[in-house]
Amino acid sequence: MVGGVFRWGLWTVLLASVVPFASALSPPRPALEEIRHTSVPDYTRVIITLSAQAEYNHFRVAANRAHDRPPRIVIDFSSTRIAPRLRAPIPVDDGLLKRIRTGQFSPTTARVVLDLEQIESYTAFPLYSPYRLIIDVKGKSKKTEVDQPPEQAQAPQPYRIMIDPGHGGRDPGAIGVGGLKEKTVVLAISKRLGKKLESRLKLESRRSVKVLYTRERDVFIPLPERTAKANAMKADLFISIHANASENPHLQGVETYYLNNTNDRATERLARRENGLTPPGLASLENGMAPGSDLYFILSDLHHTGNEPESIALARALQTSMMTQVAKRHSKVRNLGVKKGPFYVLVGAHMPCVLAEVSFLTHRVQGKLLRSSTYREAIAEGLFQGIARFIKEELPRMESL
Ligand SMILES: [Zn+2]
């Protein structure tokens, strides 16, 4: 009994001191901070950036003729406020969306409304660090149908290959032996690959080849904008090029990834680094792929990526060819194979997409090799031959569908 009184007394003291302290530390309400959109004739990506993670809900609403309202997509964010600068409507008028509006729907709910012209479908999924909601709207644009002369519509479209040199600008990527930066190595390899594709890739179907880059210089580009660019430019392939790093200085080799869930801890660590997530220290990240974790959420909405068989075939072709080229001079480089992993940069791509880790910057020998033009050339040649082989085997089948 005495003990009971004592405990109550202690709790009262603790509560009195802890509660105000806790409320002072509770995180501020999330705010809608930025809304951007990328438009091409039959595709629009809307990127809504928030100051912190928020619960959201999205649904479609039919036109209301009585109130002169067009059909719309509504996204509600709970416990969220709107930064004052975002309160003006954003005109889009791209044939799919008329405009984007925001409003404080209730004291606790911020609402974003996409007023629709005509669309076929849409998907919504979150990305993290910073927290964003991506809305991909697909459809056929009336404006384009009117603008394009019929003979142009019938001409075969060039085959477009989007090369994505990882990182750039304020994001150096991994730092290797002697201070070599991943962003520098992968840009150099990407340019070698692009030149090879432009000069040597010939398609049997006589379509011309167009090489595109997410970046051609040392500039920072957020991950969702890289995929958005590939979708917007109607790329047929998306190849993200990276160099690996590990705390274990003995780890070495070449590996190629396609997008999917994984239980492999090493892949989770790699994906966190490539995704720009804060490395360990944040408790939520320690949960790995557990429900509620960042990586779990990335993949919870992946059922709309229908490219997995092609992406696996592409990853296999690249991995085999890179190893063939590298082994000509460097037989000790390990073949780490084709793997699956949760990489943000591949999320939402509408085409076969892979991420190549072309060697370890942190390995004593490979870190030096990555500086040399002969090694970069071998990797680029391997990527080139892998792409050429994939297209030769897969394109006739894909075009016949
Ligand atoms: Zn990287």
Main β-sheet, spatial strand arrangement: 12-11-13-16-14-15
Q: Kindly report the name of the CATH homologous superfamily of the largest domain.
A: Zn-dependent exopeptidases
The count of helical stretches stands at 10
Give the helix proportion (percent range). Answer: 25-40%
Characterize the overall form: globular
CATH fold-type name of the largest domain: Aminopeptidase
At the first level of CATH, the class of the largest domain is Alpha Beta
Q: Can you tell me the number of structural domains?
A: 2
* Strand-residue proportion: 25-35%
- List all distinct small molecules, including ions and cofactors, that are bound in this structure: zinc ion
Distance N to C terminus: 79 Å
**CATH architecture grouping of the largest domain:** 3-Layer(aba) Sandwich
Low-confidence stretches: 1-24, 144-148, 278-293
Which structural category fits the helices and strands?
A: alpha/beta
